[in-house]
Design goal:
This protein has helices at residues 3-23, 25-49, 55-86, 88-110, 129-146, 149-158, 160-170, 175-213, 219-229, 236-251, 256-280, 289-303, 305-323, 329-335, 348-358. With 359 residues, the protein is mostly helical. The chain has a domain at 22-112 and 136-158. Helix 8 runs antiparallel to helix 9 (219-229), helix 12 crosses helix 13 (305-323) and helix 13 (305-323) crosses helix 14. The N and C termini lie far apart (57 Å).
Amino acid sequence: MLPTQRTANILIIIFFGAIILKEGAFLFVPLVWGVFFAFALYPISSWLEKRRFPRGLAIGLSILFVFLISIGIIYILLNQVVGLITEIPQMSENLENKLSKYLDEITLLVGEQFMDQEHELELWSFLNPQNLNSTLFQTGKSIILIGIIPLYTFLLMYYKDFFVQFLNKYSSRNNDQVINWAIDSGHVIQSYLSGMLRVTGIVSVMAGIFFYFIGVKYFILFAAFIAIMNLIPYVGVFISSFFAILYVFLTTETMIYPLVTFAVLWGIQLFENNIITPIVVGSQVKVNALVVVLAILVGGWLWGISGMVLFIPLVGVLKITLERIPESSAFGYLLSDDVPVRESKENYWKILIKKIRKK
């Protein structure tokens, strides 16, 4: 096959594959989440099976265990969400008053043409009840979609031997390669999920302690929001920090608290990215930062928030797949984090690290 024709075929496959993934999101998103949870819960169900529990019961108990923990967390968060919703009218009034105050002060400095009074309401229209209702509707739709994930998880775990047998039949000539690919892919997904779960817990505790000490009323809700949005690299911290700082701004009388909140949240983010995640998660996904950003954007375009989270380990699985195909190994290297960085002179950070290691 000519290189041009091969490239054209690849582009056609990517084009139609993207359409299928986007239009079939209702089917694929819960299925992929089911696959991920199946890998995450496998150690628990396997431990129960080794103690003579029937497979169906072991899987059911594993899912029930996670379900009860999730229900407890959701119950606590919903109580805080309800309380926060009841304060929205008051916060809207506070925002309008504060914006009017600050805009008046700015107008005195730069002139009356700085802000048209008719456009002031656009700055706080996102707190409008209609926008809130739309958000709640989308949330309800997501909850309905989430309901099918436990069923997928149960069936995928229950028929695991069936899928292994299928792989053996499908790859009768190179069983070892296919089985090793499946094992490595499973390890990537499992390590990523378990590692990010631990990171989420650590970040939520740190953020919760800070919010508690500065007197944030719904500190548990905002701590959980910060930690969950942190699962979306580079993007989630912007969204979560904005809403947390906005709430602190609306509920305090001075600008010191919002500024301190901004500094602390970004400090937590830097600490998590540079210390916590490398230690807890390691380099299990092993894809470079550019690919991670592209995965977030493509995942968000195709599957929304779920895509932003799921596409990162999926790219790791894609890298493993490409590396095992001789014709595509170069593309696997393109996704990897084995990136040579050549600098004209060694930077101060590398020099400092070398001196520390010598000691």
